[in-house]
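so my prof wants the structure for this chain in the tokens format not the other one, which i didnt know existed until like an hour ago. anyway here's the sequence
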Amino acid sequence: MTICRRTFVKAGMAAGTAFAIPSIVRAQTSPADARTVRMVKEDLRIYDPVASTANITQEHGLAIYDTLFALDSRFTPQPQMIEKWEVSDDKRTYTFELRDGLGWHDGSPVTAADCVASIRRWGQVDAGGQLLLRRAKDISKNDDKTFTIALKEPLGLLIDILASASGQFLFVMREQDANRPATEQVTANIGSGPFKFNEALTKQGNVVTYDRNEKYVPRKETPSAYAGGKIAKVDRVMWNNIADQQTAFAALQAGEVDFSTNVPADLYPAVEGDPDLELQVLNKSGNVAFVRMNCLQKPFNNIKARQAIVLLIDQEAMLRGMYGDPKYIRTATSMFGNDTPASNDENTAWFKKGGDPEKAKQLFKEAGYAGEKVVILQPTDWASVSNGCQLLVSALRNIGVNAELAPSDWGGLATRRSNKGPVESGGWSIFISDWPDFAMGDPISNVLLAANGDKAWYGWPKNDEYEALRATWANVPTSEERKALARKMQKIWWDFAGYALIGQIIAPIAHRKTLTGLLDTPGGYLAMWNMEKASA
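here's what i got, hopefully its the right format
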């Protein structure tokens, strides 16, 4: 399927047919309640935030768990569960003390042992956590409220790593949950955060429900991004999985939901023209959209086939097809994003307006491509990425690649992309996603920028020369030296093509004007505390 005018016209009709579409929300809720917020979100299938980097899973974590440290709106780490900490004179021993009032949803107190187990489990999968575990001599509790991280050598970025939102948040879990292997998902959904998971009102594939944690003791500081006082100002939040974009928009217009994450760009004018609705950018730094290839399977186990994808992409056309309005889009050439201190122009001669399909075709030939099926995972409930997948499959077919789409909702994609096998065994070749632009400047914690094979993020690229440079990032003392290191890393990155860039987007969410207090957050992960809902 290719994108055509009919596709966009069909999407645009949503505004005119809003009240004609049968409601799938009204049937599952009582009449409007000012203390309940209903949101259109992707299908949450993986609940364990250690098991998946998917936004929806990390947002679930933000709702029910808490963190030791957190980033504020200026990307500065702030204490969250921690009351105070000390660093030894040799910078090798950090001692942390928990603040008062921390308790699990099951009524038991949070202890230092919970923190130690959580750090160890998270550290197995997060890129920054992996570095921490390599540098750690010991991570242990001192008593119920204090624990220590002893290092083999100084690690000046330790607090930054503990607070990072570039990869997976360091959510603190109960010791019995965190003692599970990172490969085994936690199923209890018991945290210590501002919201509690309501299992009774959660229906897999339909709705996920959270209730205000009445016993949560927030910090006294003003809320700022992921830091400060996490005050839940509504009693309940319900995430509705409405895959059909027209139905979702109709529900928003009708007031049956209050918030929608992935509104198609074609409907922005309809939102702006509705006096009851508002577009709001929660992620001011935007995201970088990319194409990830499966480096373990043909044809992308060959570097030249991956380089072909980098050259094939017509960024401007892809961005317009995915996100529409030019004010929200921008081309990109640096693996470190557009606006980070590490952004640079090293080895970017591959970028060409309109892409370079002829060169891409030649590279596929040099890679020995023999007609193997290329399967592109297409999330049909994420309109912009779904459109991008259609454009990409068309571009690949135009140069003779046997490409096809594998449509599913995002939950299905997030599950399938962990399959390392060939496409004949349920594996995959390509998927499209995005990552916060600010996080692209953090190769320590951003697992997307790792190239350590089986330990890397989905796609599993491997390049030892690049990894040797990445390992030195935490030791570089000055910003100028770090910029020079970034140039060396980028030169290698574009040679082995760890991913292909589509470009930068700064996309808004849509909500009813009765919903206020939504926090600006780096990366755009939803923070449900602080929001309020007025009566219509």
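also thought this was worth mentioning. The first strand starts at residue 36 and ends at 40.
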